[in-house]
Each structure stands twice: as structure tokens, then as C-alpha cells.
Amino acid sequence: MSSLIGGTYNARDTGGMPLTAGGATRPGVLLRSDALGTASDNGLAQLAATPIGVIVDFRTDSERQQAPDRLPASRTIRIVELPLLEGALAGPAPSDGPVSTEAMRAALEQLPTMPELYVGMLEHAGEAFAQLARLVARPADPRFPAVLVHCTAGKDRTGVATALLLDTVGARREAIVADYAASEANLAGRWADGMLARLGAMGVPLSPRLTELVTATPRSAIEAALAWLDERGGSAAYLRRAGLSEQELGELRERITGSPS
């Protein structure tokens, strides 16, 4: 599948997703992407022509400094930075000297599994996810009411966030999981090879777990995150605990589905 924004790899609209109550999610409301630093000039023109008025960036300060987003000059798009540490892929941390291969391997053995990573996000990032939901629910500019959310790859932080919002409004689980899983194929090839080469150039041993964390979107990972939400009352209850009001939840459903219930 070609990316919605030229030069990126994993940009797409979540519209057209089937709902459990019938119908489908609305296009031009919630969009998702990898980072926009690779956007081409044509991609910037495509972005400017969309209804996107807000871009939510889940990357850390370090990630943004290393790969700043490219944005169209023809109009203003509001940027909201909601940095999430889980899932971040930044450069090596400063140290007092070289890090041995053995030390690196030991650190890699402590990496979380993908289900553990996603549950960690949900445990720590409720306020950020609620803020994303609020921005989708209440567009500030009716001319450009859509929200684009992205991180670096557009698969982990972005994947959990979009799955959460889509589950909250009643999208079918199989469709949510399929949308999440699509990122692996979108990122395969140039993006994935380049990211792994970058890590290899840093001297990082490419263990199977690290390779999966960087490039994969196994269905079991997002299913584990959704199961964790189910065990705690569901996605809507999660967002309520994170500060989203009943009115905002209704507005979110109406924006994404066309119906408040």
C-alpha cells in the first residue's frame, strides 16, 4: 500500500473501518503516520491539501532533534508534542566511555517483549492518550478538523493510540488488529533496512527481539494490549480514568463514527 504522504512509509487514514454497530469510521478525522522528516515536496503538497489541522507527535525531544518533521509552508498546522518514552528509538545515551559488546548484549536481554512494551505505554501514558482523544473530539479549526498522529515508525506508540481510540468508538476488533498489523509490510524494505543499519553502525547487536521491536507488528502484541484494556473495564473506561469526560467521549464517537452512541 502506498503511503498517503509522499516520501513517508506508513501514513494512512483510519476511515472506512467497519463498526460493530454497523457502518464505518469516517475518513478525514483520524490519520496516522511515521515521522514526517522524509516527506517529499510532493508529500508536503499532499499534506497541505488534507483537512489535517493538528499533528500530534509522540516522539521524544531527542528523536525530534535527530529527525525534524518537514511541514508545508503554504499553511499553518498546529503541532502538539506529547513525548512517550516507551517505543522511542533514539541515538545512544551519553556515557563515560565505550560500551562493550557484552554490556550491550546484557542490556538487550532486558528489553521488553512487545506486549510488555504496549502494556507499559497504557500504564504510563493515559493522559497523553486522553489528550489525543480530546484533540480529535474537539477540532479547533472547522476548516481543518482532522488530526494526524505519529511517532518515529508510526507502529508502536501510534499503533497503540489509534487502536485505543478506534476500540473506544466501536470499531471491529479484527479491523483494528489488521490496521495495526499493516505497518510491518508498509515499513519493510527501505525503512526497516535503514533503521537496522543505523543501529548496527552504532555497534548495537541486532538480536531477534530488538529486530522485532524495531520492525514488526505482530497481531499478538496489539491483541495483548486490547486484552489488558478489557480486563480493566474497556477502552472508554480507560480514557475516563485518564480524564476524558462523558461529553468528550460522546464527541469523540460522533467525530469518528458520525454517531454519539
Automatic annotation (TrEMBL):
SUPFAM superfamilies linked: (Phosphotyrosine protein) phosphatases II (SSF52799)
GO function terms (MF aspect): phosphoprotein phosphatase activity
InterPro entries noted in UniProt: Prot-tyrosine_phosphatase-like, Tyr/Ser_Pase_IphP-type, Tyr_Pase_AS, Tyr_Pase_dom
Domain Tyrosine specific protein phosphatases: 127-166
Classification via PROSITE patterns: TYR_PHOSPHATASE_1, TYR_PHOSPHATASE_2
Pfam families in UniProt: Y_phosphatase3 (PF13350)
Name of the protein this chain belongs to: Protein-tyrosine phosphatase
